[in-house]
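Final report, Chapter 2: Outcomes

The project's central promise was a pipeline that accepts a single protein chain and returns its three-dimensional structure in a standardized token representation, suitable for archiving and comparison. That pipeline is now operational. To close this chapter, we reproduce one record exactly as it appears in the project archive, with the input sequence first and the structure output second.
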Amino acid sequence: MKQDYYEILGVEKNATSNEIKKAYRKKAVQNHPDKNPGDSAAEERFKQAAEAYEILSSPEKKAKYDQYGHAAFENGGAGGGFGGMNMDDIFSQFGDIFGGHFGGGFGGGFGGGGSRQARVKGSNLRIRVKLELKDILNGVSKKVKVKRQVRAEGVTYNTCSACNGQGSVMRVTNTILGRMQTATTCPTCKGSGKTVNHRPKGADANGLITKEETVEIDIPAGVTDGVQLKVSGKGNDAPGDGIPGDILVVIQEVQHERLKREGTNLHYDLYISFAEAALGSSKEIDTLTGKVRIKIEEGTQSGKILRLRGKGLPSLDRYGNGDILVHLNVWTPKKLSKDQKAFFESVKDHENFVPNPSISEKSFFEKVKDMFS
């Protein structure tokens, strides 16, 4: 059984974001590989702390973890885990927590740090993908063309002589408190630790060229408009042996012609005639999985809501499907023939045509309350 993330960092469940960040920094310093060379147990604790921080530092992921625990991120669920991430990935992702290159000398505090060469990460790409409700119902795989920077064929690099491959250089300044030593990004290699030795024709100063590629994106069921997904390693390459950036996929939901989405529920407005409401009828409506016939009871009142359970959309956390709520609206004719007018004149004072709602008839506000329950 996986250890609780709060226990890993040694914080309470109600800890603030600053307390979580401080606790992670402390754990990372204690178990950093540069401080514990050859200690596999310390390296494992370092990875666990990074995994815990990746979840608890995100308000959205933290909320899911508080509600569902580790199950919220299993089987490809939205969120994290570091399954397969190596140490360099962790250094790249959380280096900013120390205000410098995490793993690239670690601020110069530990003797072994100088031997670790910098690995910068390439820039991310952001794209928009339009999805219809049918795609959101089942999940979908989309192939998109992207233009990304990749290392040119034949490019070679040398270790940067200015920083000896560290990606950062030490600066010493005199202050009223004494001599202060700080690490700054190497101005020669821009933090990559490498300089171009051989640049092929068409390549830029970093040895990169722009190339169009087709990328397949697996989109899970239940995504919502504006959700951002990440395709790791498919962004722009970094110079040298740097880590490729990611593709950030922003979901744009295409509005359905008849169905309106509200979370996992779908709303359908169905208009019926006065005769159908009075006598009862059956109607066929469109759902995301095909047509469904519904029964309209005799004496149905305008505003009644029929619920088709499980016919809505799945949640992103895969905890069941929502419903389709069919709103029945009785259509009042705007024009009547002479005979029709005569008929309604003859019955308008009849007791069956005088509004007389029973106690069991729910008000508009009660119906709205039921709709959201």
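Archive annotation: Residues 40-56 form the longest helix (17 residues).
This record, like all others produced under the grant, will remain available to the consortium after the project formally closes.
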